[in-house]
Amino acid sequence: ESEDTTRLALLFSALDAYRDGEPAPLLQGRDLLLALEGDTYILPDRNAEDSRRALSLSVEGIDIPDLALFQHYLPKQWPMSLKGGEGRLQLDAKLATDAMSLDINITSEEADMGLRQYNFSTDLDFAVKLVNPAIRTSSTRFDGSYIRLTGARLQREQRADTGSWDAAFTLNKGDLSLLDPQVKKQRGDGLDLLKLLGETNAREMLGNADGTVDFEAHVSSLAWISVLMSEKFHSSFSGRGDMQGLLKVRDSLPRPGTRAQINSEELQVSFLDYVSEGEGEITFVVKDDVGGELPDWHMAIDLREANLKRSGQEAALIVDADIAL
Fold it and tell me: In 3D, which of 291, 214, 300 has the Cα closest to residue 262?
C-alpha cells in the first residue's frame, strides 16, 4: 500500500466458479491470482472517477468442465458455437479505467462445435489477445489472436463425413471498437472501463465489434466448402490451400468490402457432371449493402493449366486450359 493507493491480492488455492443461475461450474482448478488497486478512502464515492483503480487476473491453468457453458458469452449472431467437451483455460488480464490488456487461451483435446447447422468435433487451440492503452480514443488491437483446429470432423444429416482436416486462422492485424459508439459519445471523458464492464455483459460487448481485420489461414482440406454450399449447386471441392483476406465487420458480422482468397496448387472442383483440376484460386467477396447475418457472398473460381473431364471418365476433354467459374 502506498500513501494514496491500496493494493489487495487474493490467491485462490482451489476454486469452483459458477455463472449466476447455473448449477454446473464454469471453471474448476487451483492457483488463481486476483489483484485489485484503488484509492485509500474507506468510503469512496462510487460515482467519482479514480484513475488509480485497476484489476489484474492471472490463471496459469484451470479446467473447463463443459465448453458449452461459454456459449453464453458469445454473440448470438456469430455462426460459430460451442456445443460441449472439456477444456483448459489460461488467462492474463489487466484492466484499468481507460486501458486494457487481455490474453486468453483455451485448449481442448476434443471440443464439440457448431457452424450454423453443422456440427464437428476437433482438437481446439484458441487465443484472444486484446490491447488498448486508451479506450476513450483508440480502437482495440487484436493482433496475434488465433484459432487452430486439428483433426476436425464435420458432419450433417444425410451427408457422409468429409474426413478429418486441420485449419489455422490467425489475425495479423486488427483494429476493432468493442464499445457502442453511442455509449462512447454520451460518456465522453467520463467513460470508465471498469464501471462499464460491470454494466455490460461480454456477449453484448463482443456483439458491438466494428472495424477491420487482416487475416491469414491454412486449411488441409477444401472439402468443407462443399459441405457449406447448398446441394442444389451439385458441386464439390478438394485439395489444400492457404488463405489471405480482409474482414470488415459491423456489429461483429461481415460487411461489404470483406474479401478472402484461397490459393491452392492442387485444386479440384466438381460441378454438375464435370471435374476440373489444376492450380488456382477461390475468391469470396461480400458485395453490396447486404452484410449482416446473411451476407451476400460472391464466389469466383479461377484455374490455371487445368484439365476438364466428365465425372467417372479418365480421358480429359480439355487440357492445360485457364478455366473461370
Answer: 300
Residue 308 CA to residue 56 CA, distance in Å, equals 60
- Say yes or no to pLDDT of 1 above 50: no
Name the H helices within 57-214.
181-187, 193-199, 202-207
Which cell is 246 given?
Answer: 480482409
Query: What is d(CA 34, CA 283) in angstroms, rounded to the nearest whole number?
Result: 46
Q: Is the pLDDT of residue 197 over 70?
A: no
Least confident of 121-125, 163-167, 244-248, 276-280: 163-167
Average pLDDT over residues 241-249: 94
Residue with cell 487475416: 215
- For residues 95 and 101, what is the distance between their CA atoms, to the nearest angstrom? 7
CA distances from 246 to 34, 35, 172, 213 (A): 37, 38, 10, 6
Per-residue DSSP letter, 293: T
pTM for this model (two decimals): 0.81
